Amino acid sequence: MRDRVLIRPMTPADAAGVYHMSSEALIATAEEAEEIRGRGAEEVERRKGRYLHFLEHDPGGAWVAAEGDRVVGVALALAREGVWILSLFAVHEEYRSAGVGLGLLERALGYARGRKGAMLAASTHPAALRRYALAGFDLLPTLVASGAVRRDSLPAGLKVRAGTEDDLQLAAEVDRLLRGAAHGPDLEFMLQTGCRLLVAENPAGRGYAVAWEGSPGIVAATAPEVAADLLWACLADGPGEKVEVRWITGFQNWAVPVALRAGLSLSPAGPICVKGELGPLTPYLPSGPFL
Ligand SMILES: CC(C)(COP(=O)(O)OP(=O)(O)OC[C@H]1O[C@@H](n2cnc3c(N)ncnc32)[C@H](O)[C@@H]1OP(=O)(O)O)[C@@H](O)C(=O)NCCC(=O)NCCS
User: Fold this and answer.
1) Whole domain around residue 21: which residue ranges?
2) What are the beta bridge partners of residue 43?
3) Which of 115, 132, 159 is where one domain is finished?
4) Do 277 and 149 sit in the same domain of this protein?
5) CATH number for the domain including 63?
6) What is the pLDDT of residue 2?
7) Are residues 106 and 194 in the same domain?
8) 186 and 63 fall within a common domain
9) For residue 13, how many other CB atoms are within 10 A of its CB?
10) Cα separation, 182 vs 191, whole angstroms
11) Which of 81, 74, 84 is closest to 112 using CA atoms?
C-alpha cells in the first residue's frame, strides 16, 4: 500500500481533504466523535482557514500523503523565528503502520533545518509518541482541566484588561522570553478568527492570554501570579459551560489551583514534546495548533 501513496507538498485544493481525513483520524473518544459530527459549517471553515494560513506562511512545512486525489495523511509544520512547530500530523486509519507517518514527519522536520528549537503538542496515540520520541523529542506529560466553570468562584478585581492590536508588541516580547519566538502572524490570525486578547501589565509582571469561548488558547506571563490572573480572566470570558484548560505540564502547577477552584476536573492528556533551545516555557499554557 505504501507504494501507492505519494508524499507531496500540500496545495490549497487539499484543505477540504486534510480537514476530513485529520478530523476522523484524531478521534480518540466517543465524545470527540460527537463533537466533530456536531461542528457547524462556520467552525469547519475556520479550521480549513487555519490550514490555508499555514500554507500561506509556511509552504515548505506543509505536506500531504495522497493516493490519487484522496488525502490519506498530513503533516503541517511552521517556523517562527528560531522555533519549529508541528501543528497537525495524522494518517488515515487504513494507511497506518506502513511508514507513511514517518515519511511525512521527515519532510516536515526538513523544514526545521537551521532552527534552534522545536515543539509540538501531542495526542496520546502510541504511534505518534513512538514517532516523536524516536525523532529525538523529550516528552513532557500533561493534564487537561475540563468542565463547567463555577461562576461563584470567579475572583473580583483581576488585574487584566482587554487587549488591542497595540498590545501585539508586548505579546511578542513575552513570547520571546518564554518560548524563544514570537507567534508572529498566528496571533493576528487567532484574533481575526474570533479569539479575544487579554493583557496584564502591573508591578508583579506582564503577560497576555488568548481566550476562545471561555477557554484559554494561550496564557503567557513573566510571573505565575500574573498567569493565574490571566487564566481566571479567560475562564470569565465566556458562558463557561464547557471549558478546557489544556497542556498543563509539571511546570505549570500555578494553573492547577485555578482549575480546581473553578470546579474543573483534571485528567491525563498527551505530552508537550520539546527539542533543542526554547525558552523556559513557564508560566505558559500553549496553543495546541500554534504552540
Ligand atoms: C501518529 C500517526 C500519524 C502515525 O502514522 P503512521 O503512518 O502509522 O506512522 P508510521 O507507520 O511511520 O509509524 C508508526 C509507528 O508506530 C508503531 N505503532 C503503531 N501502532 C502502535 C501501538 N499501538 N503501540 C506502539 N507502537 C505502535 C508502528 O509499528 C510504527 O513503528 P515502526 O516504524 O518503528 O515500526 C497515525 O498513527 C495517526 O494518524 N494517529 C492518529 C492521529 C494522531 O494521534 N496524530 C498525532 C497527533 S499529535
Assistant:
1) 2-115
2) none
3) 115
4) yes
5) 3.40.630.30
6) 73
7) no
8) no
9) 9
10) 15
11) 84
The per-residue pLDDT for range 198-233, each reduced to its tens digit, is 999 999 999 999 999 999 999 999 999 999 999 999
Q: Does any ligand 1 atom lie closer than 6 A to the CB of residue 130? A: yes
Residue 7 Cβ contacting ligand 1 at under 6 Å? no
- Reported as a single tens digit per residue, the pLDDT across 248-281 is 999 999 999 999 999 999 999 999 999 999 999 9
CATH classification at residue 191:
3.40.630.90
Task: Kindly state whether residues 221 and 259 are assigned to the same domain.
Answer: yes
Is residue 288 in contact with ligand 1, taking CB distance under 6 Å?
A: no
Q: Which residue, 199, 202, 195, 189, is CA-closest to 166?
A: 199
Q: What is the pLDDT of residues 133-179, one digit of tens each?
A: 999 999 999 999 999 999 999 999 999 999 999 999 999 999 999 99
Q: Is the CB of 25 under 6 A from ligand 1?
A: yes
CA of 2 to the centre of ligand 1 (A): 14
Tell whether 108 and 33 lie within a shared domain.
yes
Q: Which three cell numbers stand for residue 259?
A: 482549575
